[in-house]
Amino acid sequence: MTLRQYLTSKSFFKQLLLAFGIIIVLVFLILQWLSYATDHGNEITVPDLRKLTEQQAEEKLDELNLGYVLLDTVDYNKDFPKYTVVQQDPLPGAKVKDGRKIYIKVNSADFGMVTIPDLIEKTLRQAEPSLVALGLEIGKKTYKPYLGKDMVLEMYADGKKLKPGDKVKKASKIDLVLGDGKVGFEEETDSIKNTDTETAE
User: Fold this and answer.
1) Helix/strand/coil for 154
2) Residue 190 domain-assigned?
3) What are the PASTA domain coordinates in residue numbering (predicted)?
4) Which of 36, 42, 140, 158 is found 20 to 30 A from 125 (Cα to Cα)?
């Protein structure tokens, strides 16, 4: 029998079908083994732990056979109760394997303290970003006669006058007293008036 005759014979097609059958069975068995080895289909949905205390989060994770690791406390966030979870990894809704550890960060009890920088006789344009960068808020702005317009003359927090180096809580409102830039002009005008009067006399 020639090769050409063999390739077109029933015997060859039977063996070819048998080979395909064996390959399909092997692929199926391999996929089943992989599914079993990776525990496919038995994933756990990560719960939302935000705003839960560490103990509440631990109890919730224990029910799902998940663990947790407390990484750190974060700067106080007023949108979350103190000592509650602020951040978690993996995020809520993620799929994880049995026994996976969830990494959490907990809210501090209160705002941290920051040091007031020396902003006296700095312009408002310079002072404002410096205060915001420290986590402070700009409060009331009042003006009083001073040659430099929008120049910081005094700073207050809760009615108390601040000096460079004082410490205040983050997120505090800092009230600013600024120069109105009118003193120089008024003095110059008064001087001209006085000169005119003297000349007339």
Assistant:
1) strand
2) no
3) 41-108
4) 158
pLDDT category at 17 given cuts 50, 70, 90 is: confident
**What is the spatial distance between Cα 155 and Cα 134, in angstroms, rounded to a whole number?**
15
Check if the beta carbon of residue 45 is closer than 8 Å to that of residue 95. Answer: yes
- Say whether 23 sits in a helix, a strand or coil: helix
- Rounded to whole angstroms, the Cα distance separating 109 from 112 reads 9
Within its chain, how far is the Cα of 90 from the centroid?
Answer: 15
Q: How many domains does the chain have?
A: 2
Model's pTM, two decimal places?
0.55
CA 128, distance to chain mean position in Å, is 22
Does residue 68 sit in helix, strand or coil?
strand
Tens digits of residue pLDDT in 45-61: 999 999 999 999 999 99
- Domain co-membership, 65 together with 117: no
